[in-house]
Each structure stands twice: as structure tokens, then as C-alpha cells.
Design goal:
Elements (H helix, E strand, L loop, with lengths): L2 H13 L14 H8 L6 E7 L4 E5 L3 H4 L9 H7 L2 H21 L8 E10 L5 E13 L5 E10 L11 E5 L6 E4 L7 H7 L6 H4 L2 H11 L4 H8 L3 H15 L4 H10 L4
Antiparallel strand pairs: 1-2, 1-5, 3-4, 3-6, 4-5, 6-7
Helix pairs in contact: 1-5, 8-10, 9-10
């Protein structure tokens, strides 16, 4: 087995699995299935991982469309073996940062109120790598306070002109403070990282209603000329708005802007 996979599996066992004594399988409800589909801007599959034994309690049929495999063949080892080797190394740091945030910074059931988001590449159908938007949220916490059941959602975003990066975002589901584009290369300890790295504000708090309209059209692939026609404003006005949008969001280009939109769930 790949040494990075071994390292990641051992990390999960040492930090979580070895501290969970109760054996309990998660029962997937219709509500959970609807919840999973809310965060998917493309073809997707979702799963529930049981950290007590690192087994999949449930896997959706979407693995056939995205990965070309049956749900019964989707295991933790199968998942990790399909991830691009370069991304697997980065994933170790992202998972370490996420674990520190959920297990040490938050307390008790607070971990169920956040979702973790980042990108990686995975070997899909026809042995081609796909860009995946990885989203997880904690469904239940063990008596020890460790994460017991976690929902994972993998969406194929290959068709989006996104800027691939190795950042991770920790987003509140309950309107609490969210943390965007954290760089685990700086530190995998959450409190150290936020002291070192400037935090990024969410898109909704920085843009005007008109700018949000323009962002929506940019995501759909519209040109400035087409946006001007749709909104009945001048081409120069659209250009000015686009410059202001990039400045406010601290994005270098359209690809980076779309990446942020996907991460923050604005599309």
C-alpha cells in the first residue's frame, strides 16, 4: 500500500477510531439524501463513513457515474487509492487541519454544525482523473467526543474552469463564523494557522446585489458583452463591475472566482 495511504489510515485510527468503543451503524434517511443533493453543482455521489471501523455504512449509486464502480466496491482504501498521488500528500495536511478544528477547537456537538471543503483529483471512469469538490460534515459524535459518523459528498467539477488549489475551507451550517481558503502548508494546527494567515470574508458580505448578478452570469460562462445585454447596462459598466468583483474577493481571475463560488455554495 502507498505510504501516504498508510499514514492517513493510521492517522484516522490514532486520532479517532481507537477512541470509539460503541459499534453503531448509521441509518440513512430520506432527509439525509435530500440534504446531500443540496450541495452538488454537478454529478455526485455520497457516502457515510463509520470511523469506529473505517467502514462505509452507506454509499450512493452515483459512484457508477463518477467513478465507474459499484457502490459495494467503494471502500476507504479504494477511495484513497484512486486519489492523485500529488493530491494525497496534500490531503494528509488538510485532514490533519480539519481534525484539529473539529476535535480540539470546537467542543462536543459543535462539530456537527460545520462542513469541510476542499478539492482533489480522483481516477474516474475511463481511467481519467476528475476534479472533485470534497465536502464532509459530521453526522454523529461518539461518547468519547470523537467523530463517529461522517457524511461525505464528492461532486465532479471537471467541467468548471476552476483554479485548482490545496486550500481548505471550514464553513458553518448555522450562520456562525466560517473560515475560507486556509493553507495547511502554513500549519495544521487551527489556532496557529488563523494567527498566521489573514482570513477571507465570504462572497455575500463583500458584493453588491448587482455584482452578485454579474458573478452568476460569469459562472454560467457569459462574456461581458452578453452580460451587458442581459442586464441592459453598458459593456464598460460590466467591465468596471468585474474589476471591482475581483478586487473585493481578492481573486486574480475568473477561474479563481468560480472556485470560490463553488466552495461557498453560491452556485
Amino acid at each position: 500500500m502507498n505510504k501516504n495511504i498508510d499514514s492517513l489510515i493510521n492517522f484516522y485510527k490514532e486520532q479517532i477510531s481507537n477512541h470509539i468503543s460503541e459499534v453503531k451503524q448509521y441509518q440513512v434517511s430520506k432527509e439525509l439524501k435530500r440534504f446531500a443533493s443540496l450541495f452538488t453543482p454537478g454529478k455526485f455521489y455520497y457516502y457515510v463513513i463509520n470511523f469506529q471501523n473505517l467502514a462505509m455504512d452507506f454509499v450512493s449509486s452515483g459512484t457508477k457515474d463518477v467513478l465507474g464502480i459499484e457502490p459495494s466496491d467503494f471502500t476507504v482504501n479504494e477511495l484513497l487509492n484512486r486519489i492523485h498521488p500529488e493530491d494525497l500528500e496534500a490531503m494528509k495536511k488538510k485532514e490533519a487541519l480539519a481534525a484539529d478544528f473539529l476535535l480540539n477547537f470546537l467542543s462536543g456537538d459543535e462539530s456537527t454544525q460545520y462542513k469541510v471543503i476542499y478539492f482533489f483529483r480522483i481516477l474516474g471512469r475511463n481511467n481519467k482523473y476528475k476534479k472533485i469538490l470534497h465536502q464532509t460534515t459530521v453526522l454523529s459524535v461518539a461518547e468519547s467526543g470523537k467523530l463517529h459518523h461522517v457524511l461525505g459528498i464528492h461532486t465532479d467539477v471537471t467541467h468548471y474552469p476552476i483554479l485548482f488549489n490545496n486550500y481548505i475551507s471550514l464553513i458553518s451550517l448555522e450562520h456562525e463564523k466560517s473560515y475560507y481558503n486556509l493553507d495547511p502548508n502554513i500549519s495544521t494546527t487551527f489556532t496557529d494557522l488563523i494567527n498566521e494567515q489573514n482570513t477571507v470574508k465570504d462572497l455575500c458580505s463583500t458584493l453588491t446585489s448587482k455584482e452578485k448578478q454579474i458573478v452568476a452570469y460569469l459562472v454560467k460562462g457569459y462574456s461581458s458583452k452578453e452580460i451587458a445585454s442581459e442586464l441592459n447596462i453598458s459593456f464598460e459598466t460590466v467591465r468596471t463591475h468585474r474589476k471591482n468583483i475581483l478586487r473585493k474577493t481578492m481573486c486574480k481571475n475568473r477561474a479563481e472566482l468560480i472556485s470560490r463560488c463553488i466552495i461557498e455554495g453560491t452556485i
